[in-house]
Amino acid sequence: MKGLVRKHGWSLGLGLLFLLLLAVTRLIQPTFGASGFESLARAALPFAFATAGMAIVVIVGGIDLSVASMMAVAAVLAAVLMERIAGVPALFIVLAAGLVMGLVNGALIVLTRVPDIVVTLAMLFVWEGVALLILETPGGAASDWLEAGIRGFFPVEGIPQALLIIVVAIGAVWLPVRRSKLGLSIYATGSDERAAFRSGVAVGRTKIAAYGLCGLFCAMGGLSLAALTGIGEPVPGPYLLASVAAVVLGGVVLGGGRGGLLGPIIAVFILRIIRTILTLMAVDPNVTTIIEGTIMVAVVMLGTWLTMRGARR
Amino acid sequence: MSDLSTDPPLVRIGRFLRDNPMIPLLVFLFLLIAVLEAMRPGIVMPVRAGRDGLISTFWVGNLIKFAIPLAMLAACQVLTMLTAGIDLSVGVVATVSAFVCATLSSIWGVAPAVLIALAAGVMVGLVNGFGVGVVRVHPLIMTLGTGLIATGCLQVYQRLVINAGSVVPDFLVWLGVGRTLGMPNGLVLFVPFAIFILWLMRYTGFGRLLFALGSNERAAKLSGVRAWQVYIALYVLSGFIAALAGLLYLGMIRQTSLSLANPLLLPSVAAAVIGGTSIFGGRGSYAGAIIGALILRVLDTMLTLMQMPEGARTALFGVIILAVTALYVRITGAR
Amino acid sequence: MTDTSLLDASGIAKSFGAVRALTEARLTVDRGEVVALMGANGAGKSTFVKILTGALRPDAGRVLIRGAEASVGSPAEARRSGLVPVYQEPSLIPDLDVADNLRLGDTPVEPFRAWVAELGINRLKLSDMIGELPLATLRILDLARALAAKPDVLLLDEMTAALPTDLVERVLKVVRAEADEGLGVIYVSHRFAEISQLCDRASVLRDGRTVGDLPIEPGVEDRAVELMLGQTLDLGARETSGAVTRKTGTPRLAVRTLAARPKLSDVSFDLYPGEVLGVVALEGQGQDELFEVLAGFERPGAGTIQVDGVPVRFSHPADAIAAGLTFVPGNRSEALLSQRPVRENVALPFAARLRSWGQLKLRRERERVGYAIDKLQIDTRAQGEVQRLSGGNQQKVTIGRWIATGVETLLLFDPTRGIDVRTKRQIYPLVRELAENGAAVLYYTSELAEIPQACDRAVVIFNGRVVDVIDASAADEATLMRAAYGLTNGASAA
């Protein structure tokens, strides 16, 4: 029990912070209840998936700047496919496409030996271009069941369907990985690449796999975008900085090896509920954007500073 | 410079080209222009289409005119890349500067408007410099973040001045669209600007430090360089240049929008990379970046003629950046 | 040597560019045998270890394990073939717990636990995070993990460096007992006391070549030192006799009880103007930390530094430079802007300060850089980029940087590592001349023969402490080598 608290102390703290913010929200707007929480969870969907993907590549010791672009590709692909073929095969095609995009990113990093940040910066533009090629202007149509699927509550009133999707989808992918040799290899590579190599880890393959997982989560993020808007939008949203900030706030150390996915996901909800609070306080939505941006930059700065101090020791 | 003359000629040619990257770049530029002329006879050389003039000064003037703001933003990338950084806030800064200048001109007059517009760029640069130099956030993330915040500020600002209307100052229009002897007036600003950047990079202590920090920050530290000072000055300068480019672009486009100069961001990175500036720092040439900007503009015209969709263009630029960088890593074995 | 040899490596050669790290190394280990692998700094020991463990591929030669050619392309493959290494630094993943680390390397848990207990660590839980365990425990875990993998040959590389005495005893006992059961052990170490306690035989490397095998018997220390030294290179005669009188007055640099993590624990000495003070130390005895602290890169954990009698604290190398302490690091690539021309490299300190950010004073710069280039006879035919210069010329550039600005106190860290004899012979008189003109020089070198050439006195650092101060001009190499190995008893700190 004590070990569990220590291991997940940060996530626990974040959870308490979230509850506190939830209470603050109730204080400002006493009518804020289940439906408010439901729309919060819905808005958090794409952010949660982007953050999950980003968290994995940060844990392996990299960073993926192309998450928002990959999500855009997945969203337009979903919207275009679902207009033409049945929804379920389209869903799997989109997920496969996401996985492939991520694997391409990873393979380019390993093969060219160009640093992660540069490769994914270039790929940010490449995937953005691909999204535009698939669909020049917003259009297409997501399947009705996809749109309906993220609304409402399941299995009981009070648990938003969107939250369930986040937990189930991320859990279904991450938990088996986390428990497998691959998961260990991901942490080992991010923690100390040389020691990992000496322990027999195939470092290159591990990195590629981590980027592949990131791509897969980005595909889920794209699907949720399509579900939220009902169409495909080829322009990447503001998910890059948001995901980096949530990852850092969630206790994943930039540079790799430490943290999990639980913390970052709670961090996503914290960042989202701050927006809700600001909106409820009738703050101009644009000012909200500024405040949000400032919080995210401050979080990243703090994270970097702490990492630097840790490295010096 | 008498190099060790024992190397085989091919190696020497390769080395010569590496020391003088301008030559292949210029060759490539003229090759592209030749291809363009072949695709649409008469566009560059009207005489071939039966019109007057051996070289179309209109076409050349147009090429230069549209390359100028790009080349100015590329200066931001070259300078920051020298230190292994990058400035992704330049597009937003240029937009903010243009928007602020246009709206404030109608309220307070031109001179304060221009000053405040430039000050906005300096402010963003200061924040970037603090984040990169003192807190040591990766420049990519830092400048991306400030860009996002600046966009938010711009939207709030727009709400405040929504009724003020906008005025594009006359001298900016003159700079942006005016021509003298067929050449764009923008050169009046750009030529001294380019000379300043070239001077800064080659003949000042500050320029030396940019190269030093990018090639080996530890060696620079060993020699007593306090890196944070250099980073703050660098990003402030970059913000200032971006704001200046925004003003020029305002005169060229003659209308304001909340995303005016944002599409110039990617090409500005590409221009610097094509021009031989290494994204890993320590190597770069502004003259190369200027040629790079011209190359991109010619390429742009070609892609438009080929009716290449916007998406393919964006993707192509991304591929160019990655390919040039990977090639550089392959050749030098750097990082 | 017989077909019962567990490990038989022969004819191993390896070059890095023009540098030949190994020319003909060999090593055999029989069943139940513990072989010490010895060699002075730069003899090629670490390259040999890397080849045996599969981290490097040799250019020539072969490694047979149990008579079968081992194609060791990676550490994982070496492990499968039966050779399991324990490296100098821990190779456990700091952010994983013990159980996960075992799972990663497919180590069976129960034997591992048994070994941990056997080695004297009692309170270890499998859920302990590696990053939170003390260094000594990690070394034991590394060893236990290696033993649990049931190796044929165990390679211990400076295994005991971070261990307290009681654990060292424990380790030696366990390893010896395992060897008696048939395990083959390669023991890389600088410590004669442990070698004579544990090993059956010592194999000595010199200049990339295996020069002899010695049975462990009383007096083996002298034979080993002799073999490690061999025929030394003629480094040229010392030019000036340099009257070695103990300097008096205020020292330029006074260091007292200086400590810095991880390896420097207690160092005191005085360095006077006009003096070249040598630092004699084997690899990793704390000299790296000493120079980093003096150069302003790291802050000391304890102790004081005085420059000309005034206490100083450095938070940045710029502070050290302001106090006149200039540092030439051992690794040239740390100090050079490899893609920039010679002139910019030499002139770098000129531009460092805020007030010199403006227009360069090119004429003054040219004069001073020219002076340094003449002084050091830097071959500047390849002006374009420093990386095209030879190693010797590169090193001259890093020294020339401070000659051009004027030297007060020069910290030279192994300035002659990997450079040609001709350049070396230019560097000693230069160092002497600087000292005669009033500079104070602290001179660490991995090549002991240089100490009498360049230095007046030398401090000997062993295990993070000053153990002896030697009159350098009179010392012969064997004396220095014995001192460096901690074999002198007269521990009279300065």
How are helices and strands ordered from N to C of chain A?
Answer: HHHHHHHHHHHHHH
Report the helical percentage of chain B.
over 70%
List the chains of the largest interface with their residue counts: A-B, 44 and 41 residues
Q: Please give the count of helices of chain B.
A: 14
Give Rg of chain B in angstroms: 21 Å
Tell me what you see in this structure.
The complex is a heterotrimer of chains A (313), B (335) and C (494). By secondary structure, chain A is mainly α. Chain A has a domain of 204 residues. Helices cover 77% and strands 0% of the residues of chain A. The model of chain A has no long low-confidence stretch (mean pLDDT 90). Chain B is mostly helical and 335 residues long. In chain B, helix 3 crosses helix 9, helix 3 crosses helix 13 and helix 4 packs across helix 11. The longest helix of chain B has 27 residues. Chain B is globular. Chain C has 494 residues and is of the alpha/beta class. A six-stranded mixed beta sheet of chain C has the order 6-7-8-3-9-10, sandwiched between helices. Chains A and B meet through helix 6, helix 12 and helix 14 of A and helix 6 and helix 14 of B.
Compact overview of the structure:
With 335 residues, chain B is an all-alpha fold. Chain B contains 14 helices and 2 strands. The relative contact order of chain B is 0.17.
What is the topological layout?
The complex is a heterotrimer of chains A (313), B (335) and C (494).
Chain A: H1 2-7, H2 9-28, H3 34-59, H4 67-84, H5 87-112, H6 116-134, H7 144-149, H8 161-179, H9 181-191, H10 193-198, H11 203-229, H12 239-249, H13 262-280, H14 285-312
Chain B: H1 9-19, H2 22-39, H3 57-82, H4 90-108, H5 110-135, H6 139-160, H7 170-177, E1 179-180, E2 183-184, H8 186-203, H9 205-215, H10 217-222, H11 227-253, H12 265-274, H13 286-305, H14 310-332
Antiparallel strand pairs in B: 1-2
Helix pairs in contact in B: 2-13, 3-8, 3-9, 3-11, 3-12, 3-13, 4-5, 4-6, 4-11, 5-6, 5-11, 7-8, 7-11, 8-9, 12-13, 12-14
Chain C: E1 7-16, E2 19-29, E3 34-39, H1 45-53, E4 60-65, E5 68-69, H2 75-81, E6 83-86, H3 98-104, H4 109-118, H5 135-148, E7 153-157, H6 165-180, E8 184-188, H7 192-198, E9 201-206, E10 209-215, H8 220-229, E11 253-260, E12 264-271, E13 276-280, H9 287-294, E14 302-307, E15 310-312, H10 317-322, E16 325-328, H11 332-335, H12 342-351, H13 362-376, H14 391-405, E17 409-413, H15 421-436, E18 440-444, H16 450-454, E19 457-462, E20 465-471, H17 477-484
Parallel strand pairs in C: 3-8, 3-9, 6-7, 7-8, 13-18, 13-19, 16-17, 17-18
Antiparallel strand pairs in C: 1-2, 1-4, 4-5, 9-10, 11-12, 11-14, 14-15, 19-20
